[in-house]
Write a structure and sequence with these properties.
Layout lengths: L8 H11 L2 E6 L2 E6 L2 E3 L5 E5 L4 H8 L3 E10 L11 E17 L2 E15 L3 E5 L1 H6 L9 H11 L1 H8 L12 E8 L2 E7 L4 E7 L10 H14 L8
Antiparallel strand pairs: 1-2, 1-5, 3-4, 4-7, 5-6, 6-7, 7-8, 9-10, 10-11
Helix pairs in contact: 5-6
Length: 236
């Protein structure tokens, strides 16, 4: 990606967990997909809620310190050309599950984290220590990003045109389509799709966001700059 400022690997992992609606949990001999059943507590520990009658819940209660792996795939919420191109990163959390009481019959279990790994097309494979993960904080747009990008794509195609004017013209030669694929505290990332490849370009905000409420004025600043650009881009 072109000159993109990125959060640290630990921050990315925290953001993935905050944004993800589902995850895959592996324990010896079993796998389950949990939807809307996880969060990170104040101590920075991953907490999952297991269905009361599931095999995994039984194993956690019977076997202390049950080895477990949690996997999350981060998929771009906007439509890009190839299915593989939608995968922005993958995260793996390894450790031991310990029971932590019941809630409405379901078993709450805490993952005592041994290691966490982020697989990112830009950063490569990065291992994050448990202490660094616990100390990190998710991006302020973690829960809003998908809705913001989908709204921008579906309701404001003219805004994407204005934003694309902020990209150096020589990068746009041969571009078939421009799609927003990421938004975080540093800025919005546009994907430039060519015939047989793509390139991601970040349009940085004037200052990193402190809260989600900062997103609207920062986007308005970018759009105002884009509307002031007069050069024409051929090929898209």
């Amino acid at each position: 990606m072109s000159g993109i400022k990125l959060p640290t690997a630990a921050e990315r992992l925290r953001t993935l967990l905050a944004a993800a609606s589902s995850l895959t949990l592996h324990v010896p001999g079993h796998r389950c997909d949990l939807i809307g059943r996880h969060h990170v507590d104040e101590a920075g520990r991953v907490v999952v809620e297991l269905p009361a009658d599931s095999h995994v819940a039984l194993l956690v209660e019977v076997e202390a310190d049950l080895g477990a792996v949690i996997e999350i795939t981060d998929v771009a919420p906007t439509p890009v050309r190839s299915a593989g191109g939608r995968i922005r990163s993958r995260a793996t959390f390894s450790g031991w599950l310990q029971p932590s009481g019941r809630r409405d019959g379901d078993l709450r279990a805490v993952l005592e984290l041994a290691s966490a790994t982020l697989l990112d097309p830009v950063l490569g494979e990065v291992e994050v220590e448990a202490d660094a993960f616990a100390a990190a904080r998710p991006d302020p747009l973690a829960r809003e990003e998908a809705d913001l990008l989908c709204h921008l794509t579906g309701a404001h195609p003219e805004a994407i045109e204005h934003l694309s004017r902020l990209i150096a013209p020589h990068h746009l030669h041969g571009v078939h389509r421009v799609v927003p694929v990421r938004m975080d505290r540093f800025g919005v990332v546009l994907r430039l799709e060519f015939a047989a490849r793509h390139r991601d370009v970040q349009l940085p905000f004037s200052a990193p966001l402190r809260t989600a409420a900062d997103a609207a004025p920062r986007m308005h600043e970018l759009l105002a700059r884009g509307r002031c650009c007069r050069h024409n881009h051929s090929g898209h």
